[in-house]
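Researcher: Going back to the complex we discussed earlier. I've cleaned up the inputs and rechecked each line, so this should be the final set. Can you rerun the prediction on the complete assembly and write out the structure?
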Amino acid sequence: MKIESVDFFYLAMPDVTTAADGSQDALVVRVTAGGHVGWGECEAAPLPSIAAFVCPMSHGACRPVGASVLGETLDGPDDIRRIAATVAYNSMDLLQAPHTWSGIEMALWDVLGRARGMPAWKLLGYERAYPKVPYASVLFGATPQQTLERAKGIRANGFRAAKFGWAPFGESLSSDIAHLDAAREGLGPDGIVLIDAGQIFGEDVDAAAARLDAMERNRVTFFEEPFHGHAYAAYAGLRDRMKTVVSAGGEAAHNRYMAEHLIDFGKVGYIQIDCGRIGGLWPAKQVADYAVQRGVTYINHTFTSNLALSASMQPFAGLEKHTICEFPTGLKQLAVDLTLDHIAPDANGEIHVPDAPGLGIAVNPEALVRYRVDVEIRVGGQPVFVTPKP
Amino acid sequence: MKIESVDFFYLAMPDVTTAADGSQDALVVRVTAGGHVGWGECEAAPLPSIAAFVCPMSHGACRPVGASVLGETLDGPDDIRRIAATVAYNSMDLLQAPHTWSGIEMALWDVLGRARGMPAWKLLGYERAYPKVPYASVLFGATPQQTLERAKGIRANGFRAAKFGWAPFGESLSSDIAHLDAAREGLGPDGIVLIDAGQIFGEDVDAAAARLDAMERNRVTFFEEPFHGHAYAAYAGLRDRMKTVVSAGGEAAHNRYMAEHLIDFGKVGYIQIDCGRIGGLWPAKQVADYAVQRGVTYINHTFTSNLALSASMQPFAGLEKHTICEFPTGLKQLAVDLTLDHIAPDANGEIHVPDAPGLGIAVNPEALVRYRVDVEIRVGGQPVFVTPKP
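Model: Rerun complete. Updated structure for the full complex:
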């Protein structure tokens, strides 16, 4: 097969707010090759990611992503790895390139799986897929009382695990403790409580460590992104002060090295990979293999549609003991409507990566129209990008 | 002062080739505040960097760079650091943001220096500036004979130091040895020979190590980027096999942590910072301080105009013992014409960071017209960017 076309669809809700809610817009990628159609999703910042695909070349090590993809052969996983290496080398100085490539790479596995009638996780080398325990991923309430109610609601909806994140966490120690107590109370004694600080402590180890007592008393499983994603010394410093809780991070990794370094130098206990940023499924699978070697738990990072969720489950589908899975709840309607297939908990409260070919998720063409944000980019008077037809 | 406007000028040569020559295009930034005008330059990929300034918000941690800059107060260095922290937090999920911010940050120091009548290096905390030994930064010849002639030409032009880089280096061991011998022969016995492999060895330590004998016999000072910029384990592995030569890297660092990690975990002997990528002058100065602490030599990475060269000299202007300085020669005419002021070696073959206020380099308004690449970006039918008037 040859890669014939790569199309980008920028979608957004009518109102996008400053909430840390990644489901307010989307950049959906459609790839065609050999009569097959595959879909992927780039995480965040649609316009710069489109620009990275179509921009004029700056020099040999700063070429647009499109130049390394269009017209390439796609006959098997080795081709995806080969194209990935070409993008990494030829777009070395184009910082946004990994985010653009991530959605394309997902779509290539989708095409390949559909062409072979195999789910992507089998193409990645797994013999079978294991169910995952989804955790509801939500923002903290504005008050501890709201967090309590949110936690009770999650439990009532059948979730045993939940992650609470972002503001107002970090605003004051007493407030944070009240939110932590509320999260545990609302989820019940056997609930799995996860906390995401959204990098609020920068690299201030003491500030983050001040929350550890309340976390450990509330049996928090992991403490996500207390610090800037690159502040390995701060992560390692906090690790030395933890008794039962461990830290988690890695969502911003835009290549596998960054995730491996967070394991080796930041000493995280959970490595969280967003396939929409790290370069798609293959580097994520490499990180999963590395995590197994190092005794660290792999977990997906997903805050967008079920297309991204399926993609994010593939790289660790076959890891039986890596059971927790981020499952975004409270998605904006755009992210719900984007797919015709949805991944939902079964009677045991577990979720399953699709068995269907590729990523196993059909994209809803009506959503591409309903939430469409038209983009037109002209360089030197010539159009280099115009929103394609759905 | 308030930051009143931030304008981007995309410039390019009529023909842009796949040569690893970063001077074929430019993204120039003009900032106005309090009646003062400052200039900066983002390194590489103009279109995605413009997009990162103007794109619609995706969510609270993925806002356009412009939202954190326009209208902000600029009364001193603390304001630049404060805005940098805001950009880093509010554009956390926008990968291209550090490259966009880098050119703005430079321009803010330029504005501040012009407002106070002080060079930027004084604002950064240095008492005095020391001369630097410029190395001519060129590409390898296509043949060893061409490399020999290029090296002789550089020596004849008064340079004692030169760096040879990129293809065909890495194509074969025998060819690489011939190029290394040619570089030494052409520069003469007292020349300073530097080699840039342009990441050609990926993470293959053995392949890179096979070149060490010829490097050490030819007294190469540093071996730049043998590997992918994040392959710390490969860097550290090569370090263990080096006797006299040391490795160099860091040009792709887009925050100070990445440079510090290359020092700590990659064990480089020279840390090379591009102010057009790392976030401008301040994070570069922090890396310079860190390098001093760790016994590593700081050096600029610059392959574009003299505006970028002045910016890149500021963060280590006051480090007397960090003497070598990348000095791009063979710049494309666009990069020559972009500035009215030029930095040139003195009778001793040394170069000096400007003493004039700010970055001390006047931009040539005619070049902004002559090399202009018009850009128009429309989102949802509305223009979000149109090339401004010079």
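Model: Worth noting: Chain A has a mean pLDDT of 97.
Researcher: Good, that matches what I expected from the previous run.
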